[in-house]
Amino acid sequence: MRLLKLLSTFTLTLTVAGIGVQVSAATYDGPRDANSSVTAEITIPPVDPEDPNPPIDPEETNPERGDGLSIRYVSPLDFGSTSFSTEAQRLTANHSTGLDGQSFENMVTVEDIRGTRDGWILTVNQAEELMDGAIITMNPYVAENDFGVTTSSDPLIIGTAAQNFAQADNESADAGVISIGMGVVTLDIPARTGVGEYSTTLIWNLANGPV
């Protein structure tokens, strides 16, 4: 089983992808003969899970393509700030923002352009607890689904143990890209949590193979 790993921190970023043509260095064979190479790259931009038709332009996507199965993009999470309280609090993660300033839901984008596709599983966990007793909850979903992708119908509590965020049994599905929305992402903070800045890392693992 092959594993692809991506880390996301709790902040914010988001890249223009499309078709690019680039002329590279030339070689010369005498005064009247020259050879110049031309390269081209086709990339697939992430798609807003709430509006799958127009692609978004995040600032950073994963440059690694592997064997055709890859995590193209994952949203960092920013819960903002709050004041100290003697009561428990619930914070909601801010939406991500593209290069054009447009807001879109936090998401993970998976690309599967392998010649032979045998499904995949995407898991997530915290590298370490964000803060003692705090709970991070996601509500994964897929708006348009041509890739056999499924998510849990129940809210997903993100702890330090890896849990399935989404999976696909897509042996016969068309190749392409799909975005899985994180849904409303909340952070429940215990009462009297100490003042300070808190951060952690989410570890995303994409494993190819039958579900």
What does this structure look like?
Helices cover 0% and strands 45% of the residues. It is built from no helices and 18 strands. It has strands at residues 2-9, 19-28, 34-42, 47-48, 51-55, 69-74, 89-92, 96-97, 103-104, 107-112, 120-126, 135-138, 149-150, 156-158, 163-168, 176-181, 186-189, 201-208. The strands form six sheets. Strands 1-18-11-15-13 form a five-stranded antiparallel beta sheet, with no helix packed on it. The chain has a four-stranded antiparallel beta sheet with strand order 7-17-12-14, with no helix packed on it. Strand 4 and strand 5 form a beta hairpin. It is globular, with a radius of gyration of 20 Å. The relative contact order is 0.27.
Q: Report on the biggest sheet.
A: 5 strands, antiparallel
Structural class: mainly beta
Topology pattern, helix = H, strand = E: EEEEEEEEEEEEEEEEEE
Overall helicity: under 10%
Task: Please tally the helical runs, counting DSSP H or I stretches of 4 or more residues.
Answer: 0
Lateral arrangement of strands in the main beta sheet? 1-18-11-15-13
Whole-Å distance between the termini? 11 Å
Strand content: 35-45%
Estimate the mean pLDDT confidence: 76
